[in-house]
Amino acid sequence: MSAVRVFGWTALAMAAFAANSVLNRMAVGAGWIDPLGFAAVRVVAGALMLALLLGVRGGVVWPGTRGRLAGVSGLVVYLVGFSVAYLALGAGIGALILFGAVQVTMFGGAVLSGEVVPGRRWLGAGLAFAGLVGLVAPGGAEVPVAGAVAMACAGIGWGIYSLAGRGASDALAATAWNFGLAVPVVVGVALIWGGMRAEAAGVWLAVLSGAVTSGLGYALWYTVLPGLGAARAAVAQLTVPVLAALGGAVVIGEAVGGRFWVASAVILSGVAIASAQSGLTRR
Predict the structure, then answer these.
(1) 3-class secondary structure, 198
(2) Alpha carbon 180 to its chain's center
(3) Which residues of 216-253 are buried (b: 16+ CB within 10 A; e: fewer)?
C-alpha cells in the first residue's frame, strides 16, 4: 500500500473513531439509551455488518488464531470500560485518560516487539500528547477513581486490540471474528449490569455506530495498521479527540473555544513530526 493511500485510509479511520464519540454522546447524553445497552447494540450491529460483508465477498473465512484472543479481549475491555467510565467521568478527562492509556500501551508494545522508534517519533508523540493535555485538562477537578480506572482499562484494551491487528493477513475476516466472538460477552455484561433502557433514537444511533463507524471503521483500521507500525498508530490516534470535538461542535452544538484551536495546532504538529520520517511506511 502506497504512503499516500495509507495516510488517506488512516485519516478516514480516525474520522470513524471520532464519529463514534459523537454518536455515543448524542445517544447516552440525551438519555435515549443506557451506556452498556449502547455498547451491546453497537457490537451486535458491527458483527452483523461484518458478517454480511464476508458473505458478499465469498463466504466466512477463519483468519487463524494469531492475535485472536488479544483482539477479542481488547475489544471487549474497550467497549465495556468505555461505557462504564462515562457513568462517572466528564468527556474531557475521560478522553485524556483513554488516549493516554492507548499511547502508553502501543508505545510499550512497539518497544517490546523490537520496533524501531526514532527520536523524532518520540518528540512528535510527546508534543501531540502535550497538546491533548492542553485541550482536555479538567482544571484541577477531582477525578472519580472508579471511572478513571475503567477508562484506563478501556484505553489499554484498545491499545491491545490495535497491537493485535498488526499481524492480520485478512483485515476484514479478523475484524468480523473479533466482533462476533465479543458479542456474547458484551451482551451478557449489558444484561447483567446494564439498565436495559432504550428509546428508538438511541438504538438507531447505536446501530449506526456499530455497523458503520465501528465495524467498517475497525476493519479499515486493521487494514492500515501494518503500514503504520505500533508507534505511529499510537500517535495518529491522538487526532481523534480533536476530530470528536469538531464533530460535537457541528452536530451537537458543543462550544469550541480558543484553547481548542491552539491545542489542535500543537497536536497536529506533533503528528506531522512523528509521521514525516520515511513517509508513512513502517520503520
Answers:
(1) strand
(2) 18
(3) bbbbbbbbbbbbbbbbbbbbbbbbbbbbbbbbbeeeee
**3-class secondary structure, 194:** coil
Instruction: Give the span between the Cα atoms of 70 and 221, in whole angstroms.
Output: 16
Taking the C-alpha atoms of residue 128 and residue 217, their distance in angstroms, rounded to an integer, is 23
Considering only CA atoms, which of 199, 208, 157 is closest in space to residue 182? 157
Rounded to whole angstroms, the maximal C-alpha distance in the chain is 54
C-alpha cell at 48: 452483523
Amino acid residing at 58: G
Cβ(123)–Cβ(273) under 8 Å?
Answer: yes
User: Pick from 54, 22, 18: which is nearest to 38 by CA?
Assistant: 22
Look up residue 103 and give its three cell numbers: 499511547
Distance (Å, whole) CA 108 – CA 152: 15
Task: Give Cα 126 distance to the centre of its chain.
Answer: 19
Q: Tell the residue number behind the cell numbers 524501531, with chain if given.
A: 116
Mean per-residue pLDDT pooled into runs of 10, the chain (283 residues): 77 87 81 90 94 83 80 92 74 68 76 75 79 67 74 88 77 87 94 83 94 86 77 73 78 71 77 59 39
Contact 187, 44 (CB under 8 A): yes
What residues have CB less than 8 Å from 233, skipping those under 6 apart?
Answer: 106, 162, 225
167/82 Cα distance (integer angstroms): 25
Residue given cell 491533548 in the structure block: 132
H helices, E strands: number in the chain: 12, 0
